[in-house]
Amino acid sequence: MIDKQQVKLHFSKNASNYNQYTHVQKNMRDILIDFMLQSNKDNLKIKNILEIGCGTGYLTTALVDLFPLAHITAVDIAPGMIAEIKSKFKNDSIDFICGDIEEIDINTTYDIIISNATFQWFNHMPLTLRKLYNSLNKNGILCFSTFGRYTFNELNECFEKAKQTMSIKEPIYSGQSFHSLNELHTMCKNTIRNKNSNNEILVESKELFEYEYFNDCRDFFYSIKKIGANNSNKDGRCTSPAFMRKVINLYNKNFRENNRVKATYHCLFYKMIKESVK
Question: Which residue numbers delimit the Methyltransferase type domain (predicted)?
């Protein structure tokens, strides 16, 4: 389970640093937009958009440019992120809400619900997917990106090797767990499906891998900290300095390419279209 209070704290504290360190997330934004636009041929018909996890606004900016006539509701769990994005937009067509989308009651319907690199922080994915899908207008699109199970596989491997070397039996987690492409695709289909519904469920998905390179493992940890994506798990015991030194040494030794260490990002993209059965 994710500790949402820690998520708020970490992202708020690092809101001013976020854009400087989110190279992969920015690439994901571009891919997400292209993926979404494949199902939307007429931007002028889009009137109402919900963005989840707006952060500092780099997806919001693209939505404003693409859909100049639309009203956008931008939501983020972190007060610091909302303060940061509000300072950049002086636009009456955007409403900003500071809150957890898993807890917020949605009383409006939308033509597009979109989110970039946020769904990995959800504790109740099936319920939240159902709520969002039910908030779509006819022919509405729910489109999101998130991280998959192979994200930070280098770090996960080092945690497991360090546990074995130090004979640690208790669970220690490097971060939250992620779904595979098939797991999340199945979840999307099963949690949205309703045999009494008059709507047909269309789910499309894709995956790709992005890589970042750092001088060493400590630089990698620093980049994660500076965007606020620290380990916010409620489960698992705290790591000792000795354990983390072992992890860092293993990482620097086993995952170096061209004198830099590698970090893998497994990027998943999903799109659900709400179409009436003919």
Answer: 50-144
Question: pLDDT category, 198, cuts 50, 70, 90?
Answer: low
CA dihedral 216, 116, 12, 158 (to 10 degrees): -30
Q: Give the H or E element holding residue 79.
A: helix 79-86
In this structure, of 33-47, 106-120, 187-201, the range with the lowest mean pLDDT score is: 187-201
* 89 CB-side CA count, 13 A: 27
Residues forming beta bridges with residue 275, ordered by sequence position: 200
Structural domains present in the chain: 4-276 (3.40.50.150)
Query: In sequence order, which residues have a C-beta less than 8 Å from that of residue 88 and are 6 or more positions away?
Result: 56, 57
Flag whether pLDDT at 86 surpasses 60.
yes
Q: For residue range 26-66, what is the model confidence (pLDDT) as tens digits?
A: 999 999 999 999 877 666 689 999 999 999 999 999 999 99
As to burial, measured by CB atoms within 10 angstroms (0-12 exposed, 13-18 middle, 19+ buried), residue 17 is: middle
HEC per residue, 29-54: HHHHHHHHHCCCCCHHHCCEEEEECC
**Residue located via tokens 């499309």:** 204
Q: Decide if 85 contacts 72 (C-beta within 8 A).
A: no
